[in-house]
Each structure stands twice: as C-alpha cells, then as structure tokens.
Amino acid sequence: MKRSTSSPHVQPSELGNRQMGSQNALIYSEAIVDLYERHAQKYDRDRSRRLQEKAWLDRFLSHVRPSGVILDIGCGMAEPIARYVLEAGFRVVGVDSSPSLIAMCRARFPDSEWLVGDMRQLALARRFDGLLAWDSFFHLKADDQRAMFARFAAHALPGTPLMFTTGPAHGEAIGSYCGEPLYHASLSPSEYRQLLAAHNFSVLSYLAEDHTCGGHTVWLTRYGSNPQDAG
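^ thats the sequence. predicted structure below, dont judge the formating
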C-alpha cells in the first residue's frame, strides 16, 4: 500500500459515510497493490511535489530525537515526504508494496533502506524513533486497519510518535486512478481513539478535514506516554 496523490483520487473529506457490498470492498481493497505497481511510472509523474503536508511533518518531527530513524509505511517513491524527512537530518526506512516504486527510492536515495512489503504483514523485529503512514493506511479495509495498531506498537519505542491520515467518519469510498477503482476506508474517530488507547498510544493532536492540508484528517500520536488528549 502506498501514499495516494490528491487529485486523481477521493478527496480526504469524502472518505466516510459511504457503504458498499462486502464483496466489492474486498475486491477493490485487494486490487490496490497491483494497481500501484502497474501504474508506478505514471504515479511518479502525477504525485505532486508541493509539500502541503509540511506543517504536520514539522510537528511530527519535533517529537523525534535528532538523527532518529523513521519508518515510512507506504513510502511510495519517497517524494516529497521521505525526501523532506531526510533533508531535515533524519534517517528513513521505507516500506512499500510496489517493487517499482521501491526501485525508484533506491535509485534516488541509495544511502537509505527501502523494503518491498505489504504493511498488513509488517514485522521488521525492530523499533523506530518515528512511524509515519501518510495517505497509505486509508487504503486498507476496516479489519486490516484495526489489526495495524498492534503492528504500529510492535515497531515503536517509548515516546515514538505515530502520524497517520484517515477519513473524518466511518465508511468506504471508491476513487479512481487510470480509469480503475481505487479503494479507501475509514473507521470512526471514536474507534480510532479506542484502538490507540488499547495499544498504548496517546493522541497529541487530531484535526479533521484540515483545510490548510488539502482536507486531510490527521492523527499525531505518541507511544508509551500519557499526555492530555489534545482533541
């Protein structure tokens, strides 16, 4: 799974309050990996390098120790987000299901570690100083999203920030890319909070449909600490 572009897909604010048949949801969600691999070159051209995520990334990075190692889950071809993180002086381990996109990462940033893998089977036996799943996690169907929180916790050190994007409400939505269905899903904010708390993550900041960031709904959390819930 990887990070979607903004324009060819469902806008973040549309993600929620839609339902579809379970069989269609399964078909569309399982097609994501193959879709991005087949269209990797076009995706690389289409993905905007304008960093509308900068303010959130800066907030996230402020919780990572200097020169810390960040696990970018669904890293795509590493631009613009992983590039920004590397240029800020941090190290990156990127994971993506597309071999073609990972090949681009390795060509562009050969000193970093880039792994082909499905986030649903993430098991690196390592813990990281930061976890990032920006515009990637929301391609998973609901049960797979629920299962990811144990995987996040298994890769976090005490104090590790986790930042991810979702929809603003429970539901499913189908966008399109290259004329093919592109699946998105979201749980409800209350269920995300329950899952985070159950896996020892506390919410540092939450904002639904941030108009300064393309309508993204963003969660910034921290593992193994209990600051006052910010929203």
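The chain has eight helices and nine strands.
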